[in-house]
Structure formats: C-alpha cells, structure tokens
Q: What sequence folds into this?
C-alpha cells in the first residue's frame, strides 16, 4: 500500500494554489525577462498573499526576488485607491524606468508613514494587493494575475487571519473593492485568472 497522500484527500485550497503557481511560473518563464514584474490582485481573502509567497519561494529564475504587499502601503482602512496609486508612483513606475523605487511602510497604529524600503530595478518584483490591477498598472506589469474566490471562503480566511482587527472594517473595505471592480474590471486586465475555492 502506498504511503503517498491521496489526491482526493488533498486540501483543495492548497491544490488550487499549486495549480495557480504552475500557471504563473510558466507565464514568467515565457516572458524571459531578467527582472519581470508580477502583479497579483484579488479581493480580500482570495489567496493573493499565499500565491505571492509561494511564487517567491519557487521563482523560476535565479537570484533574489522582491515582494511588496500592499497591506504595508495602504494609508488606512479607506486607502485602497490611494495605496494603489502610491505603489504605482513609488515602486512600479521607477522600476519600469530602471530607477530605484523607495516606499515607506504605513504604520496602522500611528496612522502615518514609517521606515523606508528600496526596490532594486535590476531584480524581479512581485507586488500583491487588493485593487492593484488598474489599466496603468497592467501596462507596467510583465505578468498580471487575478485571484478569484467565493465570498464565504474569502471572508472566513480574511477574518481567520486578521480576526477582530479586520471584522469592523470588512464592509468598508469590500465597498472599495467593489468600486475597483466596477471601474477597472481587473479580471479582464489580467494575463491569468486563477480560482481558489
């Protein structure tokens, strides 16, 4: 009898993320750039961060990969659109021009920008966060990904991760995501659409 786990017993979220990772890494390899930019968008709890971390760990090229999470950039609970514009101006536009990008982390407790980080334009870059795929950002990305997941799963994952900190703000954040969907149709802008149960 085999000791290997049965596929039928595998975690469906893990299985979906593994399939998404394979699709994204194949797309990156097809681009063939030394320093590609990968943009990962999706609604809260969809699996963006999990996919981005797996992507960095299994990067198809050599050397270091930079990862920026918009959760470190949004200027507070009403800052989805402002955070996305901030990442475009301070990270993605400089990277596209071969310039070092510098961004400051948002300190959620003090409500202000904090320490600064540099982004090396010679290295690959993965950026993930809700609201990320706008037409301007899609033009700056070599590979763009929309992560789709059903509301009950998304909410359970997001609140399971962030609990009482996020719970009072769920509806407020979801309204900003809805505005992003209506304005930009990020799934249409994406090179790849992946589904997580």
A:
């Amino acid at each position: 009898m085999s000791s290997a786990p049965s596929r039928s017993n595998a975690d469906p979220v893990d299985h979906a993320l593994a399939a998404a990772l394979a699709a994204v890494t194949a797309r990156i390899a097809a681009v063939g750039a030394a320093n590609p930019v990968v943009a990962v968008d999706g609604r809260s709890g969809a699996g963006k961060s999990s996919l981005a971390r797996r992507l960095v760990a299994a990067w198809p090229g050599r050397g270091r990969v930079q990862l920026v999470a918009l959760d470190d950039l949004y200027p507070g609970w009403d800052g989805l659109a402002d955070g996305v514009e901030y990442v475009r101006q301070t990270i993605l536009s400089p990277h596209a021009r071969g310039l070092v990008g510098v961004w400051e982390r948002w300190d959620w407790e003090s409500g202000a920008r904090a320490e600064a980080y540099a982004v090396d334009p010679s290295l690959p870059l993965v950026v993930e966060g809700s609201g990320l795929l706008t037409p301007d950002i899609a033009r700056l990305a070599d590979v763009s990904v929309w992560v789709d997941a059903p509301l009950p799963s998304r909410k359970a994952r997001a609140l399971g991760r962030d609990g009482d900190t996020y719970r009072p703000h769920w509806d407020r954040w979801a309204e900003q995501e809805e505005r992003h969907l209506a304005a930009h149709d990020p799934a249409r802008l994406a090179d790849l659409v992946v589904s997580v149960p």
About this structure: The chain has seven helices and seven strands. The helical segments are 12-31, 48-57, 80-96, 135-140, 151-166, 170-184, 186-189.
